[in-house]
Amino acid sequence: MAKTDLIRDVFGITLPAERVADNLEAYAEILKEIEKLRALNLKDIHPAVVFKPNTDHLAAADD
Amino acid sequence: MTDRELANLAIEALAPRIQSGALSPVELMDALLARIEGHDDQVKSFVCLAGDARAQAERAEKAIKAGGYKGPLHGVPIAVKDNYATADMPTLAGTDEPIAGLESDSHAVSRLREAGAIIIGKTNMHQFAWGNETPPTRNPWDLDAVPGGSSGGSGAAIAAGFVPAALGSDTGGSIRIPASVCGTVGIKPTFGRVGRSGIVPHSWSLDTAGPLAATVADAAVITEVLSGGDDDDPASAGDLAADFTSALNAPVGDLRIGICRNHFFDGLETDVGDLVMAAIAELAKLGAKTVEFEVPNLQYGLASIFAIELASSTAWHDQAVADGTTAGYAADVRTLVEVGRFVTAPDYLKAEQLRRALIDDVARCFAEVDVIVGPTTPLTAWKIGQRTVRIGEIDESVLAASWRLTYPWNLVGIPAISLCCGFDGRGLPVGLQIAAPAFREADLFRLAHAYEASQDWKGIRAGL
Question: Would you say the pTM of this structure is higher than 0.90?
Answer without folding.
Answer: yes
